[in-house]
Write a structure and sequence with these properties.
Blueprint lengths: L11 H36 L4 H33 L1 H18 L6 H29 L2 H29 L4 H7 L4 H10 L4 H7 L6 H4 L5 H21 L4 H8 L9 H29 L1 H22 L3 H17 L2 H10 L5 H16 L1 H13 L2 H9 L5 H7 L11
Helix pairs in contact: 1-2, 1-3, 1-4, 1-5, 1-6, 1-7, 1-11, 2-3, 2-4, 2-16, 2-17, 3-4, 3-7, 4-5, 4-16, 5-12, 5-15, 10-16, 10-17, 10-19, 11-12, 12-13, 12-14, 13-14, 13-18, 15-16, 17-18
Length: 415
């Protein structure tokens, strides 16, 4: 007798959960990536200079402040999602990141832009925890990894949307690109009206419970929290310190053409980079279901450790960047699917959003240092390539952490 396909027997509610989680995450990534893709023209305008060293330093500060906001968002909205519901919290976080992305268009200084990006980060950091918890609790075990992979891959659509916005609206100025970032607020209203809370959460919510944050530091949960946080720290440090700088690196390669002239080239590189990321996200569940979560994570971390230095140290021209960047996206962005699959399987329902939000976002306090370090290295050496290659080697630290991690493949979701 043939086994049913992973998508057979699913209810309309489960599909609705997936659609809403994908919309929330795609637009989350779109608003988050807008700054990275217009960093060079925005900081050139606000600082009144086109020097790589100055833009790298102050651009890194703004990106680091955004990462700190992202980290706080995960810590704040995780407990809110455990207490008041996943769907309600997801709608609220989308509203927050959309509103403050729009306000970035009004910034008159790099400090003001950093302030708005911090507040944008609060919403972006909270959205992922609520969406991942929704999928884990609403979807059956046989399909859970696939659904999480699809949700994470939808972030690649967000990258494409950001690139498309830059291509279409960038010629009118970076402020208009930020202004369009307010549109995801419409999705928040749709989610609030159309999506009820998962039955598993409602059942557990009716039982008396303690402080979810305090529960993270009690045995045996704290060991999984530490491992999850360390893995997420490595992935986000590598991503924010290396991959987020690709648009600025390409702009620097083509600097002689002028900021407006390079818009199509930057958009193409970011598009193929994120195309590789989408494929990487969709492939991760296949590896995880076949070989286990730990082995799949090992493959992706190793791949990123090789691909990032390959791209930034060896690639010297634009054509080669177009060819190599999908490989960087496949491993560097694809590894985040592992967290959408692995983290919900480690923790019980009563603290799931808090715990996975803590791991995924507290790690960003450490990774927030990556843009500062990269920016300082760019400022010191006047070269994006050397700085980003060195930052990318951090992926190798994950292999030590994975040695102590436990496998969750084939196990029931903790109640």
């Amino acid at each position: 007798m043939t086994e049913p396909k992973w998508y057979e027997g699913l209810t309309s509610y489960q599909w609705r959960v997936l659609v809403c989680a994908c919309l929330g995450w795609a637009l989350d990534i779109m608003d988050g990536y807008l700054y990275a893709i217009i960093l060079f023209p925005a900081m050139s305008d606000l600082l009144g200079t086109s020097q790589n060293s100055t833009i790298g330093w102050y651009g890194g500060i703004v990106l680091g402040v955004f990462m700190i906001g992202w980290a706080f968002g995960g810590l704040i909205f995780g407990p809110i999602a455990d207490r008041y519901g996943r769907a309600r919290t997801m709608a609220l976080t989308i509203l927050v990141y959309a509103a403050f992305t729009g306000l970035c268009a009004t910034a008159r200084s790099w400090q003001e832009l950093a302030f708005y990006r911090f507040l944008t980060g609060l919403g972006i950091g909270g959205e992922w925890s609520a969406g991942a918890a929704l999928i884990a609790e609403a979807w059956p075990a046989k399909s859970r990894a696939k659904a999480a992979g699809i949700m994470q891959a939808s972030g690649g659509i967000g990258f494409f949307l950001a690139s498309l916005l830059y291509l279409l609206i960038g010629p009118y100025g970076w402020r208009w690109v930020f202004a369009v970032g307010i549109l995801p607020a419409l999705v928040a209203f749709y989610i609030r009206r159309s999506l009820e809370e998962p039955a598993r959460w409602i059942r557990v919510k009716e039982q008396p419970g303690g402080n979810p944050l305090a529960a993270l530091f009690v045995k045996p949960v704290r060991r999984d929290v530490l491992i999850g946080t360390c893995l997420a720290a490595v992935a986000t440090f590598g991503y924010q310190g290396a991959i987020q700088w690709v648009p600025s690196w390409v702009s620097a390669l083509l600097q002689a053409q002028g900021p407006r002239a390079v818009i199509p080239q930057v958009s193409l590189v970011t598009s193929v980079l994120n195309g590789g990321g989408i494929v990487g996200c969709l492939c991760f569940p296949l590896f995880a279901d076949r070989w286990g979560r730990k082995r799949a994570l090992t493959i992706y971390f190793l791949g990123a450790a090789l691909a990032v230095p390959l791209m930034f140290s060896l690639v010297q021209d634009y054509s080669a960047a177009v060819v190599v960047s999908p490989l960087v996206g496949f491993f560097g962005a694809g590894v985040f699917t592992g967290f959408a699959i692995y983290l919900p399987e480690l923790f019980p329902t009563s603290i799931r959003a808090t715990a996975q939000g803590f791991c995924y976002n507290f790690a960003r306090f450490f990774s927030a240092a990556a843009p500062f370090i990269a920016g300082a290295m760019v400022s010191a050496h006047g070269s994006f390539a050397r700085a980003i290659t060195a930052i990318g080697m951090v992926y190798l630290l994950s292999l030590v952490v994975l040695f102590f991690a436990r496998e969750t493949k084939g196990q029931a979701l903790p109640e």
